[in-house]
Structure formats: C-alpha cells, structure tokens
Amino acid sequence: MSVPAPVSDTLDTPLKQGKHRRIGVFDSGLGGLSVLRALHQYLPLAEMLYVADSGHAPYGEKDTAHIIARSEYITNFLLEQGAQAIVIACNTATAAAAQHLRARWPDVPIIGVEPGVKPAVTHSPSGRIGVLATPGTLASPKFQHLVERHGRNAEITLQACPGLAKEIEGGELDTPRLRELVAQFARPLQEAHSDTIVLGCTHYPFVRPLFEQVLGPGVRIIDTSDAVARHVAHLVTELPPCAPDSPSKPSDAISDGHIRFWSSGNTALLSQIVQRWFNLACAAQPLP
Ligand code: DGL
C-alpha cells in the first residue's frame, strides 16, 4: 500500500514494524480499509489479511445475531489463514460481536474499534459533542456503556446515519447523494452547536472531506483509526513470529508488508477500490 514511512520514530525495529507477524482485519465492507491504512503505516512489514463482507453489508441495519454469525465465520476463516491477531475494523461488529469472539477464542488477541467518545469529550472546548454512527452501534449496550463511562459531563448529540455506509460501499466518494446524506446527518449536530464530531463508523473517514466542508473549520473531527493502529502495533511486539507457512498457503507465503484481500461481494470492485484509493495492485479473492 502506498503510504508514508512509519509515523513514529519509536517504531524503529523490524519487529516493531511487524516483521513476520500476520494480522487479520475485517469489516462489513470497504470501511475497514481506513483502519487497514493506519495499521499499515504503523506496521509496514506485517502481513495483513483483509476481509470485506460486502455481500452482507451494511451491518449497521442488520440484527445482532446475523452480525455475530458473520463475525464468527470471518474470524474463523482468518485464523485458518494463519492470522495471529484479529482486528474488528468495524464499530458495529465490535459492538455486536467482540465479546462473543473473545469468549470463543480466548487465546487470540481480538482488537475492536469504538466511537471516540472519550477523546471527543477531552478535546471539546464547549463539552458539546456529536457522534455519527450506524443505527446498530448507537443502539448497542456497549455504546450505552461507553457514553455512561466517558460522556457524563458532556452534552452528546447522537446521529444515526442509515444508508451512509451503503452509499460509500459504491466506491464513489463525492456523489450528489452522498453530499445530501452528509448534509442531512450533519444538520442536527450543527443545530446542537457541537464543536467536536466523532466518526463512529469506519466507512465515514472516506467522506470526511464532505463533512469538513459542511461543518466548517471550527469543528474538530475525531477518527480513532490511528489510535487503534498504535494499540495493535504495541500488541504485535508480544506475538511470536508467525509460522513459515499455513495449510492453505505455499511455504514462501510470508512476505513483508504483503496484504491479501477477500470479499464476500464484488471482488472486482474491491480490487479496483484498493487500487484507486491506495494505489496498490490488488487481486481480491472471493470469500469462500
Ligand atoms: N464500517 C462499519 C462500522 O464501523 C459498519 C458499516 C455498516 O456496514 O453498516 O460500523
């Protein structure tokens, strides 16, 4: 993936850059690519396996049992491919399934993502923050606890964004429909005078420029993908080097910084998007 050199000068050894470590990453679709991009910046030598469950997207409007079943299936697949740690690059799947996955695979590090309520409350000058997320994330008990834990002294406006992730899944990031949705979902936050807005879905960083245009320069936008990547980079140093091969792969399959992609939906579209958004040659395979 074409990204700048490691962002931290503390990441100065091949081990810290993820050499011979294999990380599985998944999302309902393209959104997790925002997390993958950050992971690759911190761990340029790690091998990454990415699953886009685009055939089942959006998760944000599906019931919890379905999301748990999909998350379990994909995690199992990634582990079969030799992943040593799993990053749930999806707020909705984290809220619905992280606890379940950790109970099922207690020895595997499973890292989730959650809306950045805590940093938003810390940074907001007025204490008025807004959270943009899927209906599923906002309705989840996990999110309620997050707000109870970190949002007590803040005035929080919650804005579900049905349809937004689905629109981003199309791969075009500046369409009239997207502009309309962004303006519609930003309005209640503007009316509430929120000065700090959390992007609580991994799809939304791809339309951050549209939100910035609508919200203006006085509003700070919080995206936690960098913090998640930093956490994973730290954790990776504790993993042993991965086995030289896995049952389904040839023995020379470990290549530094190599990223492999699977999709349960349109593999050609995923390959095209990875190529277009990241300038990386990609031949996505169908998720079995
Ligand atoms: N990218 C996902 C998230 O972070 C979910 C989008 C969706 O499939 O609804 O919540």
Which helices and strands occur, and which strands form pairs?
Blueprint: E1 22-27, H1 33-42, E2 47-52, H2 64-80, E3 85-88, H3 91-104, E4 110-111, H4 117-123, E5 128-133, H5 135-139, H6 141-150, E6 155-160, H7 164-169, H8 176-191, E7 196-199, H9 208-215, E8 220-222, H10 225-236, E9 259-263, H11 267-278, E10 285-286
Helix pairs in contact: 1-10, 2-3, 8-9
Q: Percent of residues in beta strands? A: 15-25%
CATH class of the largest domain: Alpha Beta
Main sheet characteristics: 6 strands, parallel
Mean of all residue-level pLDDT scores? 92
Structural class: alpha/beta
Main-sheet strand order equals 4-3-1-2-9-10
- Using the alpha-carbon principal axes, give the shape: globular
Description:
- This protein is of the alpha/beta class.
- It folds into two domains: 9-113 and 226-286, Rossmann fold (3-Layer(aba) Sandwich), CATH 3.40.50.1860; 117-223, Rossmann fold, CATH 3.40.50.1860.
- 41% of the residues lie in helices and 15% in strands.
- The chain contains eleven helices and ten strands.
- Helix 1 (33-42) links the parallel strand 1 (22-27) and strand 2 (47-52).
- D-glutamic acid binds next to helix 3.
- Residues 27-29, 31, 57-60, 90-92, 134, 137, 165, 201-203 line the site of D-glutamic acid.
